């Protein structure tokens, strides 16, 4: 009888990335995984950190150090907000996996997920600051701090910030990231039937497919996916709308050309790349020639200044389906003037554009009601965003008694008063 060949399931990091350099041998007989040694106590160390000095360094980096990976609109703020969001937003309530509390976004599998393209560059930009503060500042804290400083620097009245996220030093090699054998495929059920413990709808995403479910540009169906994914992150409808509308007040999507020019992820890139991946071999491959998600659009008139334009355009215009230069479905405002600034050319302007997942906030009746209320009450919107951001970035740290540092907010999310509030600056 002919033997039936069984194809092994790709469940481990080494299954997905067989050419990954295996450094296990270097850890033989190592008393502990922690490179700082067995006696290292991060909580003790971080209490001696000069956080104001770190804030100054991050602000300097965001505004003035832009040669290697040129910042869109002259400011790395939106990139750091996306880094912090993707670090925190993979959290899932059913098994507590993912999230921002351990800095695991810098390791595979997370750093290699297609949703995280470009974040290898954001981490590399922060590296000199991590080196400067060393054992007193974890990657996990630095990543969330950089996104939060970015928000404040771009005009959001944030709630505060706590230090105290302790890094892990090895990837989480659990097979529980998903049963799929390919990135950007879903074998975990759809919408309300999404299998537990997953929150993201597809392997390699941290939430939903921005183009719509399975690439189908249907905003109402996208809303159903968003509701499930965000609920599995612990967010209700109000927090979901605040987070998406608040986040997309900033920055842009990158899809200058087809993904056929895109190189391998960081772990599959040659060793001399030292953790950088996704070389984009189209023109300069950076600045105006960048590929990240494959969409090409900017949401706001002021992409580095907090404002209400995202919500305003969402309801002001009718939307027409179009495609990005990389061939992804996205939406353009009908009969709109070219008013949106270009990220690199001061003489160029674009029409307002949106993702299918953005239009979900208009075409789902419950989301639309909240989004309209925010549009009519910008202060309420800003407060809701600041609160949801704090929850997103702190809820996996434990109770407020675990919070550390002078910028811990005065009030807990449940309204209990702790200590006088200070701003980050
Ligand atoms: C349904 C939920 C969401 C979807 C589908 C989504 C999708 C996307 C996509 C496709 C991009 C473009 C990435 C690129 O090409 O560079 C992007 C960028 C961005 N997103 Fe979201 N996003 C969501 C929620 C959020 C949330 C909750 C935040 C923060 C609170 C956020 C903050 C940002 C920022 C700041 C950028 C711009 C990054 C840059 O300019 O480099 N997003 N998002």
Give an account of the 3D structure.
It is a single chain. By secondary structure, the chain is mainly alpha-helical. It is globular, with a radius of gyration of 21 Å. The model has no long low-confidence stretch (mean pLDDT 92). The protein has helices at 13-16, 42-46, 51-64, 77-88, 119-133, 139-153, 219-231, 237-247, 309-316, 356-363, 365-376, 378-394, and strands spanning 252-253, 297-298, 319-323, 329-333, 340-341, 349-350, 353-354. The protein starts with 12 loop residues before the first helix and ends in a 31-residue tail after the last helix. A hairpin with a 5-residue loop joins strand 3 (319-323) and strand 4. The chain has a 3-stranded antiparallel sheet with strand order 3-4-7. Strands 1-2 form a two-stranded antiparallel sheet. Helices cover 32% and strands 5% of the residues. Bound molecules: protoporphyrin IX containing FE (HEM).
């Amino acid at each position: 009888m002919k033997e039936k060949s069984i194809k092994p399931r790709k469940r481990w990091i080494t299954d997905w990335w067989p050419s990954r350099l295996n450094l296990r041998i270097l850890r033989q007989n190592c008393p502990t995984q922690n490179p700082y040694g067995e006696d290292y106590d991060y909580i003790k160390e971080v209490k001696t950190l000069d956080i104001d000095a770190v804030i100054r360094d991050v602000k300097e980096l965001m505004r003035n150090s832009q040669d290697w990976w040129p910042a869109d609109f002259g400011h790395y703020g939106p990139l750091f907000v996306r880094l912090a969001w993707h670090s925190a937003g993979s959290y899932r309530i059913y098994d507590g996996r993912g999230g921002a509390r351990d800095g695991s976004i810098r390791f595979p599998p997370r750093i290699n997920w297609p949703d995280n393209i470009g974040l290898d560059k954001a981490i590399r930009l922060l590296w000199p600051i991590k080196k400067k503060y060393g054992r007193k500042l974890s990657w996990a804290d630095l990543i969330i701090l950089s996104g939060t400083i970015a928000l404040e620097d771009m005009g959001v009245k944030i709630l505060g910030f706590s230090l105290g996220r302790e890094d892990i030093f090895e990837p989480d090699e659990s097979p529980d990231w998903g049963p799929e054998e390919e990135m950007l495929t879903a074998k975990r059920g759809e919408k309300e039937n999404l299998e537990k413990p997953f929150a993201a709808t597809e392997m390699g995403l941290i939430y939903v497919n921005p183009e719509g479910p399975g690439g189908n540009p249907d905003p109402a169906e996208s809303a159903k996916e968003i509701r499930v994914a965000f609920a599995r992150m612990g967010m209700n409808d109000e927090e979901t709308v605040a987070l998406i509308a608040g986040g997309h007040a900033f920055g842009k999507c990158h899809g200058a050309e087809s993904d056929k020019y895109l190189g391998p992820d960081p772990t599959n890139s040659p060793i001399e790349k030292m953790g950088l991946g996704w070389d984009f071999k189209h023109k300069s491959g950076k600045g105006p020639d960048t590929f990240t998600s494959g969409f090409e659009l900017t949401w706001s008139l002021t992409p580095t200044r907090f404002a209400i334009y995202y919500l305003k355009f969402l309801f002001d215009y009718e939307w027409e389906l179009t495609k990005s230069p990389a061939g992804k479905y996205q939406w353009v405002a009908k009969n709109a003037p070219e008013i949106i600034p270009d990220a690199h050319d001061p003489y160029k302007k674009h029409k307002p554009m949106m993702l299918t997942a953005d239009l979900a906030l208009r075409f789902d009746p419950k989301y639309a009601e909240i989004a309209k209320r925010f549009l009519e009450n910008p202060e309420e919107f800003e407060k809701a965003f600041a609160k949801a951001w704090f929850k997103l970035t702190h809820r996996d740290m434990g109770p407020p008694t675990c919070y550390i540092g002078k910028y811990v907010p005065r009030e807990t999310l449940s309204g209990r008063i702790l200590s006088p509030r200070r701003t980050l600056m």
